[in-house]
Design brief:
- A hairpin with a 4-residue loop joins strand 5 and strand 6.
- This protein is 19% helix and 17% strand.
- The chain is globular and about 95 Å long.
- By secondary structure, the chain is α+β, with helices and mostly antiparallel strands.
- The chain has 3 helices and 7 strands.
Length: 235
Amino acid sequence: MPPLWALLAFGCLRFGSAVNLQPQLASVTFATNNPTLTTVALEKPLCMFDSSEALTGTYEVYLYVLVDSAGSRNASVQDSTKTPLSSTFQQTEGGRTGPYKAVAFDLVPCSDLPSLDAVGDVSQASRILNAYLVRVGVNRTCLWDPNFQGLCNPPLSAATEYRFKYVLVNMSTGLVEDQTLWSDPIRTNQLTPYSVIDTWPGRRSGGMIVITSILGSLPFFLLVGFAGAIVLSLL
């Protein structure tokens, strides 16, 4: 499946129903070091849900997060009435017992997207990237702030595989209109122990150090042997 960024770059190509698409990692061109230990940057589902015809009314896109497991591909994010789940990070133990809603944002019509040509402009880069990308795990205070209001999008766990799903919600009815598949598992990075970090480019292994020491001492022993031979020849 080609990355959404590549398709958008060719003029916001139209897709079919979002039901056959998956959330994708953001392109490394625009999100380096992704995933991190606690965050994942994804491409927003732009030009997916309004591909066949323009949508009328107000819509939002919900992003659900789930720790990968044997049955995670079939996990539902709606009830029997098509009402989207409102489960939180805390209620699902960070996605371990079920999907939680991490992010919600307005559906931007494909025709209203900012041009990617200006992404190199420092004054516009942040606005453009926010229009195209969504970051999971960026709110470090919502779990502990008693005054926090809104969706809590706290840091993810390191070295953990997650799946993600976008859901289109009609805000007039409060019901699910469309949704993507669950993404393939995306693994956050693992913290590297300090003891194994090579802090000096010239660091060598123990074996190399021993060999270097022997080779470094060899000229000394040869010189001593040569001097001894000269002394013996004079006696």
